Amino acid sequence: MKQRLTTIALAAALVAGAGWWVAGTGAQAPTLNGQAIALPGAANAQESAAADVTVQEMVLGAEDAPVEIIEYASYTCPHCANFHKGVFKDLKADYIDSGKVKFTYREVYFDRYGLWGSLVARCGGEERFFGITEMIYDTQSEWARAGSEAAIADELRKIGRIAGIENDQLEACLSNGDKARALIEWYQANAEEHGISSTPSFVIDGTTYSNMSYGEFQEIINERLGG
């Protein structure tokens, strides 16, 4: 079953647990649905994390491509992982790399672990984002079941280190409460704008679709390409 936004019980999933740093770089901790979000980064990394709270759109393909696809996905969504391990690879080879589709990836947060994954993926900048995203989805069944919150955070750190991110930088990213707050506000605004109710969802030239097979993508894209 696809994960649905209406079931985001973040009041429990994102609430701060004992031993977790919950302070943001500003006066208030990041919150969702009125609950404080636990961040796994070291508290002493707070100051170095303060500079960047910008939320950058993560895009593949030609800026002037005739068809635009926006994916809404959660790093903890199994159907999203299946999409990225299957359909997405064909979509990228046939349409994105050939300049026919501009593809934008936007995160959805069902739980704090998805948010942590986002902080790690974005920590490497645009040039590393999609590679880290691929690793997160490829190993989702492993890191998401690592056990304790600390173990899950460590598994996500390992992915960041494999991608070449230094430990200090990872801790700064994982402790950046202002960035986490900005990401949550950005996700909420995007989901409301496009009427996103489940993941993965796709906005193709302004029309929202739920999860699809590659054949269904081809039919929609080719129609817009005039084929």
TrEMBL record:
Record-linked InterPro entries: Thioredoxin-like_fold, Thioredoxin-like_sf, Thioredoxin_domain
Gene Ontology terms, MF aspect: oxidoreductase activity
Keywords on record: Disulfide bond, Oxidoreductase, Redox-active center, Signal
Signal peptide: none
Domain Thioredoxin: 23-189
Database matches in PROSITE patterns: THIOREDOXIN_2
Superkingdom in the source lineage: Bacteria
Function, as annotated: May be required for disulfide bond formation in some proteins.
Entry similarity comment: Belongs to the thioredoxin family. DsbA subfamily.
Protein name: Thiol-disulfide oxidoreductase
Organism name: Marivita geojedonensis
